[in-house]
Amino acid sequence: MTATKFVLPESDIPTTWYNVVPDLPKGLPPMLHPGTREPITPADLAPLFASGMIEQEFSTEREIDIPGPVLDIYRQWRPSPLVRARRLEQALDTPARIYFKYEGVSPAGSHKPNTAVPQAYYSKLDGVRRLTTETGAGQWGSSLSMACAYFGLDCEVFMVRVSYDQKPYRRGLMETFGASVTASPSDRTEAGRAALAADPHSTGSLGLAISEAVEAAMTSGGAARYALGSVLNLVLMHQTIIGQEALLQLAMADDYPDIVVGAAGGGSNFAGLALPFLRRQLGGGPTVRFVAAEPSSCPSLTKGSYDYDFGDTAGLTPLAKMHTLGHDFHPPAIHAGGLRYHGMAPIVSALREVDLIEARAVPQTACFEAGVLFARSEGIVPAPESTHAVRVAVDEAIHCRETGESKAIVFSLSGHGHFDMQAYIDYFAGKLTD
Amino acid sequence: MTATKFVLPESDIPTTWYNVVPDLPKGLPPMLHPGTREPITPADLAPLFASGMIEQEFSTEREIDIPGPVLDIYRQWRPSPLVRARRLEQALDTPARIYFKYEGVSPAGSHKPNTAVPQAYYSKLDGVRRLTTETGAGQWGSSLSMACAYFGLDCEVFMVRVSYDQKPYRRGLMETFGASVTASPSDRTEAGRAALAADPHSTGSLGLAISEAVEAAMTSGGAARYALGSVLNLVLMHQTIIGQEALLQLAMADDYPDIVVGAAGGGSNFAGLALPFLRRQLGGGPTVRFVAAEPSSCPSLTKGSYDYDFGDTAGLTPLAKMHTLGHDFHPPAIHAGGLRYHGMAPIVSALREVDLIEARAVPQTACFEAGVLFARSEGIVPAPESTHAVRVAVDEAIHCRETGESKAIVFSLSGHGHFDMQAYIDYFAGKLTD
């Protein structure tokens, strides 16, 4: 029998996260305080994040234990499957071996619970009663809502207005998990009121929703903390469970990647798959081409400058050295809402600067074309964000057909598109532009 | 470590389906021809179904091999996980051990691909170019669309008008898989035109959509065959892969069910889980309580008569001996569209008649209440159909709390509710009635 799906027993689930920071060739520039522009300290972040999270954000340990209660929840769906995309290979008539690591099996439908669960756990440990956050496409908000339900925390989600109006079912999902969802900009925060004063019909942005969620936590008198779904070192670290599992699964397949691909908005999904393979490479293992796929309409890694910038629109967050289009950049309303962010994770940015990773910008119609091909071949309808990885993987496989090379291409299918069918409907109706 | 999820390696996937027909204590009354009322023959079904399907429908073999190309596709998501619902147990403070077999991991989101894939395969073998079918809630239509994409067949889905209008994303999913979707009643068939003549604003019914799909196949001049998502012997047989896997997984857990629960509309999901355990019982193994959960608004098994009836509204299908509310029964518009069917599978009906299984009718608000509890405990939002099984499993677990008994309850979580969030939104808004 030729295996299709590589499934690890629950007992083989990785029990540590991998922190790449000590392995970065040039280290990582510190984040700066938004007021003083001095390097921030753990104490600076205390009003914002749970203490366990702050410790991890500053950690230079290579391995950090995954707490038991977090592992218990991971085990409800992890290890996630690694699947050999044999039908896609046939459809492309390529000699390439294509594998995808499928994170859509999580109850929230994406990789985001990998970090939502520990963030809720560490917040619970601190006695916090409520977590605030923002969500664009809704994958992150759904995941944090679910994680808060697990730990008995209230969850307050600021949802970008355009998504709030267009995706009532995403909102319904968060509310089913018990979260309260507010359209952003809202009148609940100064940042929101200022945005509404400037434009009463504002459809919002991820950067603005971050400002609101941060403000809501900072002004909660200690009852609330904030949670963030990407960009941070600790978030990328939590996501390394993806790549660690994939390493074991590729060993089952007796294979090893030539190319690793992931979609990159904030960068955590791409990094989660790539970093454990990069670790091997830095330790003398095989060299891999790591390709971050981003939307051509929001090309932080391919077109942004590598500079200090805020994470949010209002300038409430620390400044991070990263590839950025500017914190006031307002990306066009593409369907991959999870990739509409002006900045890129500092770790991913630092790796790009030393050429350990590549970046490629792809237009959305080409991504949906690849997404439909994938759905008809493998059955799974990818999230619009994930179609960016599919597109690059397909292009690499087509290149293999042209050159006759049989390369192993491993990509991250970060989530399913069940809450994004309007995007596919618009694609079929010819309504999408690049 | 205490395991949560019981995962079989791909190599342990069952390679045969179990056919319960030779083990039925009183056998199975034959289906009758709609014209002559004589027992139907395989030849009678030839214009309707693929020959491989007809052979299986009449088979009295206990084990039937799963064809290799079908197994290859099953392996993309099977074996599906069996999960110990520890958080639900804690939430209920019950000594019961609750397990759920989760079919929502299939790309179409339910158990339906287990039979859609072989039906498409056998049709392809016969050189058929197109499959016609009906869909209510959309789970079956999505699954057959996916299966047809795999085998390069066209797929024509008659979707009950009320679902067609209320669920554009289900339709979008089917179209993403390449299917053509028509609202039923339509002007494409005599049955549809008659219904529209009687009521131009008809919202349709599953029975009527079946009539349309059957007629479309019968009048295709051989280009098309029909596919059916439940009720038939062969469909129940295809679904036994669920219970066969669960048997192996419970052995991994060193446990065995006292109670097996499944939601029952046509009966295939319930039967798919239950029959392999029933086989053990009939062979001298432990006695299990098998409970079919049906909606109190469409109570074929608890309130219907055990009689010969048509499978569709127009009387085009053969008559089957089954529990039925009458083929002209028009069920209220509950959200569990997949359970809105007037009849019950002949096999399930026959088992009910000899008291080998129980049936319980549950109202929809109580089902959604259980569904929300499940979502907040286990992360997965159940399909409205599946909440019926959750409700009965929860009630049994509460009963265990009251009696202090530690029973093992195994239920089938037939699918996720990602395309049914409006039902949850309506539930929270207090709009549902029983």
Automatic annotation (TrEMBL), chains A, B:
Keywords: Amino-acid biosynthesis, Aromatic amino acid biosynthesis, Lyase, Pyridoxal phosphate, Tryptophan biosynthesis
SUPFAM superfamilies for the chain: Tryptophan synthase beta subunit-like PLP-dependent enzymes
E.C. number: 4.2.1.20
Annotated catalysed reactions: (1S,2R)-1-C-(indol-3-yl)glycerol 3-phosphate + L-serine = D-glyceraldehyde 3-phosphate + L-tryptophan + H2O
Cellular component, GO annotation: cytoplasm
Domain of life: Bacteria
Uppermost EC category: lyase
GO MF: L-serine hydro-lyase (adding indole, L-tryptophan-forming) activity; pyridoxal phosphate binding; tryptophan synthase activity
Domain (Tryptophan synthase beta chain-like PALP) ranges: 76-415
Cofactor(s) for this UniProt protein: pyridoxal 5'-phosphate
Pfam families: PALP
Pathway listed: Amino-acid biosynthesis; L-tryptophan biosynthesis; L-tryptophan from chorismate: step 5/5
N6-(pyridoxal phosphate)lysine found at: K112
Function: The beta subunit is responsible for the synthesis of L-tryptophan from indole and L-serine.
Matching NCBIfam families: PRK12391.1 (NF009057), trpB_rel (TIGR01415)
Family that this chain belongs to: Belongs to the TrpB family.
Subunit-level organization: Tetramer of two alpha and two beta chains.
Protein name, entry field: Tryptophan synthase beta chain
Organism: Micromonospora orduensis
